[in-house]
C-alpha cells in the first residue's frame, strides 16, 4: 500500500538518492553532478504543509519511493500566484 504524506526532513537522504538516480541516468533534471543531502537542505526548507509550495512523498512499506512538489515559478511579483510542479 502506498501512503502519501508531507515530506519531512528525515526524507531528505532518500529524496537525494532518488534524484541522483535521475541525474546519473537521464537528462530529466538538467543537473550533471550527483548531490548530497546536506546540499539540498535549502531546497527542502522552501516547502510547508500549507500554502502553495508543498512537498509530498509517496511511501511504500516505510520507504520513500517518490515525491511531487510545487515551487515558486519566478521571483518577480507578477508570478506570486503561479507555481511550478515537479
Mean pLDDT over all positions: 94
Please list the strands of the largest sheet in the order they lie side by side. Answer: 1-2-3-4
The percentage helix is 10-25%
Tell me the span between the first and last alpha carbons: 23 Å
Radius of gyration: 14 Å
Secondary-structure class:
alpha+beta
Q: Outline the biggest β-sheet.
A: 4 strands, antiparallel
Total number of β-strand segments?
A: 4
State the low-pLDDT regions, or none. none
- Coarse shape: globular
- Proportion of beta-strand residues: 25-35%
User: SSE string, helix = H, strand = E?
Assistant: EHHEEE
Helix segment tally? 2
Characterise this structure.
This protein is α+β, with helices and mostly antiparallel strands. It contains two helices and four strands, in the order βααβββ. It has helices at about 10-25, 40-45, and strands at about 1-5, 55-60, 65-70, 85. Strands 1-2-3-4 form a four-stranded antiparallel β-sheet, covered by helices on one side. A hairpin with a 2-residue loop joins strand 2 and strand 3. The longest helix has 14 residues, at about 10-25. The chain is globular, with a radius of gyration of 14 Å. The protein starts with a strand and ends with a strand.
Amino acid at each position: 500500500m502506498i501512503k502519501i504524506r508531507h515530506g519531512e526532513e528525515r526524507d531528505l537522504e532518500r529524496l537525494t538518492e532518488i534524484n541522483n538516480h535521475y541525474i546519473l541516468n537521464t537528462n530529466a533534471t538538467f543537473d550533471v553532478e550527483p548531490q548530497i543531502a546536506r546540499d539540498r537542505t535549502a531546497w527542502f526548507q522552501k516547502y510547508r504543509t500549507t500554502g502553495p509550495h508543498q512537498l509530498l512523498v509517496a511511501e511504500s512499506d516505510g520507504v520513500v519511493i517518490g515525491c511531487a512538489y510545487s515551487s515558486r515559478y519566478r521571483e518577480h511579483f507578477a508570478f506570486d500566484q503561479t507555481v511550478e510542479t515537479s
